From TrEMBL:
This is YbfB/YjiJ family MFS transporter. It comes from the Bacteria. Keywords: Membrane, Transmembrane, Transmembrane helix. The keyword Membrane applies. The chain crosses the membrane at residues 25-44, 56-74, 80-102, 114-134, 140-159, 180-208, 220-238, 245-264, 270-294, 301-320, 332-351. Signal peptide: none annotated. Pfam families: MFS_4. GO terms for cellular component: plasma membrane. SUPFAM superfamilies: MFS general substrate transporter (SSF103473).
Length: 361
């Protein structure tokens, strides 16, 4: 998923320089991918049992690899369709992975963070592939991404579903509490996170090209992935010691600064630090949010939250599209402002959950 969904970010500058793809068309391609992700997430929220379907997962994996390999063989209309397919497949793969990870780590829930690390690793790998190709023809970047995704896909054909029933059904569930108001806050802030984070995830490399830091673009994207890979494990580890709502506030605050900084400065060291901050939080926020959704004990929480997140990602490129004529840096400032709003809601969520826990005590 990390390769299939996010390799577009480092390839975007190549396509702009070699195919004449303009910023608006680039934003449309990004939106098509996010619409697909939303469609997949909504479908699985309505039929959550599909996350257990091995044929569906295998079909999605094939579609994800194919969507990468076929990009050079089509034109703008085909690109839109292929990025849409990649989005749908990504949602299926992610939610199926969440299901397997949760079931496989029933006795040690924090270990699910190791599974989420795959997304960050894929992002780093996608950046490395594009960096290695340099200024080669843009189709080679898509072909190499497809080959890499195919290699990663092979073991999943065998492993999906194994070990799902290895744990006794008598394992005591985690302490949960149903709180509709807290869930609404969580859903809204996760939607806003989807809007803000995707702006940076889509346009960060292109924004650096605007500022004369094109040479730093792919290196920055690799750092985002390298920081994201262990971040879920780290955030999950701390969630056993610090309340998740408090950690969510911290993660969103750090991400706010990390998204906005590349829009404010051209200092390479600061940009690299911001990349680490962004990579170290966006998958961690997903881990914390889905964990909180499970604690609130609402049906289909993971799929519903992912759908809200996906809807936010659809809106992200649309929100900033009017500003792209002035370059990509203003878009990062807008993204930072949106995540800051999510941070304020997270503060409110932390207060609500703490008050309720104190009242229950």
């Amino acid at each position: 998923m990390g390769v299939g969904r996010f390799v577009y970010t480092p390839i975007l500058p190549l396509m702009q320089s070699q195919t004449g793809l303009d910023p608006e068309a680039g934003a449309h391609l990004a939106t098509a991918n996010y619409v697909g992700y939303l469609v997949g997430a909504v479908a699985l929220s309505l039929a959550p049992g599909l996350t257990a379907s091995r044929p569906l997962l295998r079909t999605s994996l094939v579609a994800l690899v194919g969507s990468l390999a076929l990009m050079p063989a089509t034109g703008p209309s085909g690109w839109l369709l292929l990025r849409l397919v990649a989005g749908i497949a990504s949602a299926v793969v992610f939610l199926a992975a969440v299901r397997v990870a949760v079931r496989a780590t029933q006795n040690s829930p924090h270990r699910a963070g190791y599974a989420y690390a795959g997304v960050g690793s894929g992002i780093a790998l996608s950046g490395l592939l594009v960096l290695l190709w340099g200024s080669s023809p843009w189709p080679f970047a898509w072909y190499s991404a497809a080959g890499c995704a195919l290699v990663l896909f092979v073991p999943l054909w065998i492993l999906h579903g194994r070990g799902e029933h290895t744990h006794s059904s008598t394992v005591a569930p985690a302490t949960r509490t149903t709180d509709g108001n807290a869930y609404v806050l969580l859903l809204i802030l996760y939607f806003l996170e989807g809007v803000g984070y995707i702006i940076a995830a889509t346009f960060l490399v292109a924004a650096l090209s605007d500022t004369g830091l094109a040479w730093l673009g792919n290196t920055t994207w690799i750092l985002v992935g390298l920081a994201a890979a262990p971040s879920c494990v780290v955030w999950a580890y701390w969630s056993r010691r610090v309340p998740r709502p408090t950690l969510l506030v911290v993660a969103l605050a750090v991400q706010t600064v990390a998204i906005a900084l590349p829009g404010l400065t051209t200092q390479p060291a600061v940009v690299l630090l911001a990349a680490l901050g962004f990579g170290g939080t966006f998958m961690g926020i997903t881990t914390l949010t889905l964990g909180l959704g499970a604690e609130l004990d609402l049906p289909r929480a993971a799929a519903t939250l992912t759908a809200g997140y996906g809807f936010g990602q659809v809106l992200g490129p649309i929100v900033v599209q009017p500003t792209l004529g002035s370059g990509y840096r203003p878009a990062l400032l807008i993204g930072g402002a949106i995540v800051f709003t999510a941070t304020l809601l997270a503060v409110r969520l932390a207060v609500v959950t703490r008050t309720r826990q104190e009242a229950a005590a």
